[in-house]
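As a warm-up, study this chain.
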Amino acid sequence: MFNVAGNQVVWFIAVIAAGEGSAWPGVLAAAVFVGMHLAWAPRRGDEVRLVVLAVAFGLVVDGVAAAQGWVTYRASMAGGGVAPAWILALWASLAVTLNGAMRSLQARWWAGALLGGIGGPLAYLAAARGWGAAEFAGPAWRGLLWLAAAWAVALPGLLAAARWQAGRRPFGSR
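Now compare it with the structure written out below.
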């Protein structure tokens, strides 16, 4: 329960603060949440590797969206063509749910793809429309299509990495 609640709290802090033009509250919230998770994690090294991998996915997914001009992120410290720190903090926060709240998805790649492909873009849309943390360039479907496709690959990829690190068989087998 802490895993899900913590991730949602980080999301709201990051998105609301970004909408106000500030990245640091989301980065700080994610650092506290991820740090607490790592302090309690029995396989800390595996969790750290998942965080690094998730941030790398975020650099690609959100970096491409920004560089192509499909999504403009508020509170971007490095300029418009890269993923902002608060978005990367959200990817780090997501990573620590892979062996917790999302563990049951590790053996179901299709469920991860469906959740990522639908839930990912909806989260961005909520951040954009609810708090102004991002803006989709017209036509918005380009950015949403990219996010749907990228998240439909990224989430199952992260789940597979978590499953592989734990020594469980690949997708499709239990």
